[in-house]
Amino acid sequence: MATTNINKTKRSTDEIINGAVNRQQSWLEKRRNFTREFLRKFNMFNTKQPEQKSVKQKTTNEKNKNTLRSYWFPMLCALLVVLIAVVVMLVKINTPVKVIAPAVPEPVIKPIDKTNSVKEITKPEFDIVRIEENGKLVIAGRTIPGDNVSVIMNNKIIATEHTNKNGEFVFAPANAYKPGNYVISLIDITKNIKSENSVFVYISERGYKNSTSLLLTKNGSKFLQAPNVEDGDLTVSKIDYLESGRLVVSGKALPKLRVSLSLNDKYLGYARVSSYKNYGLGVDVGKLKEGATYKMNVRLHDGEGNVVADIEHKFVMPNMTGANNTFYTVRRGDCLWIIARNFLRKGILFTTIAKENKIENPDLIFPEQDLKIPVK
User: Cα(98)–Cα(89) distance, rounded to whole angstroms?
Assistant: First the structure.
C-alpha cells in the first residue's frame, strides 16, 4: 500500500513540472512572435511606401468628391440666402423711410430763468459809456455777480458799485464833468481783476452832440457814442508849403478821429487826431505854380469813414522867397519824430531838428516851444 502511494505522488509532480515548462515555452514563443510582429510593423512605418500613399491620396480625393456631392444643395441654399440679404439691404437704402410721429401735447411756456442765461464773465466789461445832454456821464457794465467793481478815471477811483445777481452795475455821477479828455477803466476789487479794455471819453466845449466815447481794445477802437460833429470842431491853424514840394497842414479836431487832406479834389492822405485834439499832416504835392489858384480841403471823418466836417481853403500860390527855414510851434502831445516826418518826410531826421535848435535831449520838448525847421 505504501509503495503505491509514493509512485502516484511522483507522477503527479512530474506532470506539474512538465506543464509548467510547456507553459513557459509557450509564453516565450508568444513573446518572440509579438517582438517579431512589433519590429516588422516598426520597420514598415519607417520605410517609404509610395504606392500606399497614392492609394491614400486617391481615397482622400474620393472622400472630397463625395463630400461635395453630398453638401452641394445646402451650399447653394446658403449662397441664395446671402444674395437675398444683399438685395433687401439695397432696397432699404434707396427707399425713403416714413416716420410717423406720435401726437405731441401743446407746449407749456415757462418763464425764462435769467440766472441760467447770463453770460459767464471773468473780467469787468463795459456796456455803455454815454455823455448826457447836461454833460453828465452814465457808465454801465458787468462783472462777476455779487462782486464790488470800482470805476477808475484818469488813474483815480471815483466810485465803487455792487453788482446784482446778473453781474450788472450802473454808475451815474451827480455832477457834470468839465470839457476835456478822460480815460476810464474798471477793476473788480473783490477778485482784484482789472478790465481788459478801457474807454476814452472826450467832452466837447460845444456840448454832448460833439462829445464822444470810444472803447479801446487790442484789436482797435469802437464808438460807444459817436459825435454829431459841427464844423467848428475842425480848425486849420497853419499851412506850410516847403521849397521841396512838401505841404504841411496842422490844426485841431475831435480826438481819436481821422483828418484827410485833398488838393484840387485829389486825395493826398490822412492823419489821426491826438488825444489832445491836435493833428499834423505832411504830404508831397510837387511844385506848385506861382500865381495859380488851388483848392485845398481838410475833412474830418467819423469811425465809419463818413465826412462829418469839411474846411475848404482856396489860395493863390505866392512867389517863393527861397527861405532856408520855417518855424513850428510845439503843441501838447507832439514829438520830434512826428514833426520830422511831416516836414522832412522821414521821422529819423529828428536829429537834424534837434541839432538845429540845440536840443540836448530829443525826447524832451515843451508846448509853445518854437522850433526852426531846416527846409534844405
Answer: 16
* CA nearest to 263, candidates 280, 274, 242, 248: 248
Q: Phi and psi (nearest 5°) for 176?
A: -80, 155
Task: Flag whether the pTM goes above 0.70.
Answer: no
Contacts 24+ apart (CB under 8 A), 208-216: 208/131, 208/132, 208/133, 208/134, 208/135, 210/254, 211/131, 212/131, 212/254, 212/255, 212/256, 212/257, 213/129, 213/130, 213/131, 214/256, 214/303, 215/126, 215/129
Q: What is the pLDDT of residues 186-217, one digit of tens each?
A: 998 888 889 888 888 888 887 777 788 878 77
Nearest by Cα to 317 from 281, 285, 280: 285
Walk me through the domains of the chain, giving residue ranges and CATH numbers.
118-225 (2.60.40.10), 229-321 (2.60.40.10), 323-376 (3.10.350.10)
In angstroms, the CA 322 to CA 82 distance is: 103
Burial class (CB in 10 A: 0-12, 13-18, 19+), 268: middle
Q: Which residues contact 5 (CB under 8 A, 6 or more apart)?
A: none
Of 199, 191, 204, 220, the C-alpha closest to 152 is 199
For residue 61, the model assigns a pLDDT of: 61
Q: Are 298 and 313 in contact (CB under 8 A)?
A: yes
The answer to whether the CB of 148 falls within 8 A of the CB of 182 is no
- The full length of the chain comes to 376
3-state secondary structure of 161: strand
- Which amino acid is located at 262 in the chain? S
- CA count, 13 A, side-chain hemisphere, 261: 21
Nearest Cα neighbor of 188 from 123, 119, 120, 118 is 123
- Residue 260: the pLDDT is 92
| DSSP conformation class of 116 | H
pLDDT along the chain (376 residues), means of 10: 47 74 80 77 56 53 61 77 81 55 53 51 86 86 89 90 89 86 89 88 80 77 70 75 83 87 90 88 86 87 79 75 73 88 86 89 88 81
